[in-house]
Amino acid sequence: MPDDPGSRPARAAWCLYDWANSAFPAVILTFVFAAYFTTAVAADPIAGTRAWGTAVSLSALAIAVFSPVLGAIADRGGARKPWLAAFTILCVGATFALWWVAPSPDYVMLALVLLGIGNFAFELGIVFYNAMLPEIVSHDRIGRLSGWGWGLGYAGGLVCLVVVLFGFVQATPPPFGLDTGAAEHVRMAGPIAAAWFAVFALPLFIWVPDRPRIAHAPIDAVREGLAQLRKTIANVRRYRTATRYLIAHMIYADGLNTLFAFGGVYAAGTFAMKVDEVIAFGIALNLTAGLGAFAFAWIDDRIGAKRTIMIALGALTLIGAAVLVVESKAMFWALGLALGIFFGPAQAASRSLMARLAPADMRAEMFGLFALSGKATAFVGPALLGWVAAAANSQRIGMATVLVFFVVGMVILAPVREPPDPA
Predict the structure, then answer these.
(1) What are the tens digits of pLDDT across the range 28-54?
(2) Domains of the chain with CATH codes
(3) Which of 193, 218, 379, 409 is a Cys-bridge partner for 27, taking CB atoms 3.0 to 4.6 Å apart?
(4) Which residue, 126, 186, 141, is CA-closest to 5?
(5) Per residue in 189-225, pLDDT tens?
(6) pTM score
């Protein structure tokens, strides 16, 4: 690999896609729409938590099934951008359509279907986006670019949340004659997030180079991709280190995804935060998470991605336990912001470790398996949290299940050896 495999504009445009797609998890999946659904659409917060968890779980199951298959097919077909474009468009469309979810239990099913479609498309697009990383930067700077991208993503989520909060939710009167009685000032979160994603994703498709298409008929690419996936699974012992890492990632990513998906729900239900308060908390949390991702980007390249992940997961476990026992809203804010510092590094370093472990000719497939490992048990975390919260009639007890995933993930990850940088 050359010392500088990608141009500076290409790397900047690649990072900007993180800024673009962050609108979906920040505005829709975690803070604004999640809180709106729980407090205004669902019959009550507990029922809303359970329904939200079920929808996220079902979409995660679909992601787990399709991501490695599509990754293997893409490796045989060569180009990544057509796949990424298709899933970006699908996510943008589903996100925009959330505008039609009115504050009534009659719209619960529409909300959950659109959420499931949007989450499915968002995560499948990430498979092909991540596979581009080691093709535009040298091996010894993978951690840095991954961290910068993730940090920029948190910044994008923060700015989009600010636009939604001050431009619409708290605006008096709301712009464009929006009807607050029908929660239109909150429902605008869907179209805003969709437009944000669409506009800022464009530079990637203009400046980031793609691998050339391989002269295969589509059916041949499918056949060869499925054959390669079967071969990889059959010869899993050849990839023992990567396999152990993927198992560890499967466990702790479930905790990360569950924590992210239910952060706004927990804040709204346990601490009685209103939608605007949840958004403000989301803005602050994205700020600390972005700063953490940027700061740890250099640490990743210096001490290694695996050690960075272990440090982040250990901190998330300790601080997360404290978050679950505090009663004061002020303490929840303080500990929640501290939690955010380690959230970004855990995710960014996970991506850079996979980029280092993946064989050059199997990157999309390996990132497909990486997505699989992040979603294979992802239906367990949200479903377990939702059902435990319902059984105990306590969101605190439900959220405590997240910590188990962090601890088990660290135990499995501990023996993994990170490959040295090539000379």
Answers:
(1) 987 789 889 988 999 888 788 788 878
(2) 8-413 (1.20.1250.20)
(3) 193
(4) 141
(5) 999 999 999 999 999 999 998 877 665 555 666 666 6
(6) 0.76
